């Protein structure tokens, strides 16, 4: 029985300015520990503050300095390689796993549970575990190679600039592809069954159905996953800090590890804040351009 | 067709085992000696020894770290979920000037990486004399969790009708009573989901933990284990025991409530 009194349609329990009190604790906490420091970093970025002495206004000097800071510029090259690699190892592999594990038959639910399990592990645990395994002298990978008589293939995986970034990306893929698998899996499950039934009647094979029905219909989810991987990837920190922290010789520094070395370890609060703002603007810019250019592709019609 | 199904089952099962193996291997290797880890890396332990767990617990001062992690996680999650639910209730069920704007501002945290404010937050916490206290981790972590909490709770409130709440209102309950006696019992499944997401996130949190706490006795497990690792870079058994101690709670939570964890962690995106 539905009565149609006006209050019922508004769904409101109360009105009046005093109700802001119910949102006040959240707003206060968020304002103090997120918005305030965010605003403060804008003003710090325009100074040469070391965190202790009186700050001096230096205009945009920190920003021009940033564009001459080769380590900072290189850190974007490193993180871009990492982001591109995670699109393969996390998003694409996650999509592949979702297609493979999309089944109601016995066993598959357990497979998905196991596949997802590294996601809940901390990046710290994942990073330390793999640092041990990949160590040149005592690592398990090289120990196994030597035991098999393949000692010549033993390699300083994390101290060679080329293999270090690949190794980090692979560990990242192991740790996080389950996240994208579940998103794709949920999206696949939302596709109405009658679409497939129609295709089966038309004589389409399972493989044809995957290519011409499933993949196009989860396109919008794929676009969101890519956006998430890119914006998250550019602000990566935990794994890089845990496994290499820029070693060897800055070859694996990413923006956040470099920013923290400048800002906190070297007490350059002003400069660090400027580097942070540049990173935030770049991430927001990528997200905005990406969202705009993929807008038309997002519409899903069953 | 039959063959295709078996190949598919085998491939899916093989990949699933490979993905979970490193974690499983970490757990059972902690029961071995270092020598055994190297001579037969993949075999199950010859004898299950808790020696490394005891050593790691004592040498790494893990009892203290564990307690710190527990205090930070429980307090921060309680604040985020309670304040976030109350705010979501206000944004959906109450009307007051500026509520749309306030909601949008709270969502800023969804798009922002924590690193974006790490440096100025460091200075701010220092000026508030909070560095090297657990509050330096509790308050920022709770604040960061609010965005997702409010977002998910608002969606849940939106999906439910307000009939019960309005009825209580008509019966003379005040807004506060409506929230605690009617709304919270109604939305608790969503509160449980956001609790689990926040617990996993804050238990594993590293950036703030590294920057805002330098004193060994105030560290949380992830930050403490990184230091511990630096001192024992060749002792596999000891480090694996420490990592197992760090990972056990979240993995246990995951295997007990896997559906909720999976949909919760990915729910904001799907």
Any key phrases for this structure?
heterodimer; A: 302 residues; mainly alpha; MetI-like fold; 14 helices; globular; B: 270 residues
Strand content of chain A: under 5%
The major beta sheet of chain A can be summarized as: none
Report the span from N to C terminus of chain A: 33 Å
- For the record, the CATH class of chain B is Mainly Alpha
DSSP strand count of chain B: 1
Can you write the helix and strand succession of chain B as a string? HHHHEHHHHHHHHHH
| Order of H and E elements of chain A | HEHHHHHHHHHHHHH
Say which CATH homologous superfamily of chain B is assigned. Answer: MetI-like
Low-confidence stretches of chain A: 1-9
In summary, what is this structure?
The complex is a heterodimer of chains A (302) and B (270). Chain A is an all-alpha fold. In chain A, 67% of the residues lie in helices and 1% in strands.
Give the helix/strand layout.
The complex is a heterodimer of chains A (302) and B (270).
Chain A (H helix, E strand, L loop, with lengths): L5 H5 L3 E2 L8 H21 L16 H6 L3 H31 L7 H9 L6 H12 L5 H8 L13 H29 L3 H9 L4 H12 L1 H16 L3 H6 L11 H11 L3 H26 L8
Chain B lengths: L1 H28 L4 H6 L11 H9 L2 H32 E2 L3 H8 L1 H4 L3 H13 L7 H25 L3 H8 L4 H29 L3 H6 L8 H11 L4 H21 L1 H10 L3
Helix pairs in contact in B: 3-13, 4-8, 4-10, 8-10, 9-10, 10-14, 12-13, 13-14
Q: Can you put this structure into words, describing what you see?
A:
The complex is a heterodimer of chains A (302) and B (270). Chain A has 302 residues and is mainly α. Chain A has helices at 6-10, 24-44, 61-66, 70-100, 108-116, 123-134, 140-147, 161-189, 193-201, 206-217, 219-234, 238-243, 255-265, 269-294; one strand spanning 14-15. In chain A, helix 4 crosses helix 8 (161-189). Chain A is globular. Mean pLDDT of chain A is 87; it is low at 1-9. Chain B is an all-alpha fold and 270 residues long. Chain B has one domain: MetI-like fold, CATH 1.10.3720.10. In chain B, 78% of the residues lie in helices and 1% in strands. The longest helix of chain B is centred in the N-terminal third of the chain and has 32 residues, at 62-93. The chains are: A mainly alpha (302), B mainly alpha (270). At the A-B interface, strand 1, helix 2, helix 5, helix 6 and helix 7 of A face helix 1, helix 4, strand 1, helix 5 and helix 6 of B. Strand 1 of chain A pairs parallel with strand 1 (94-95) of chain B.
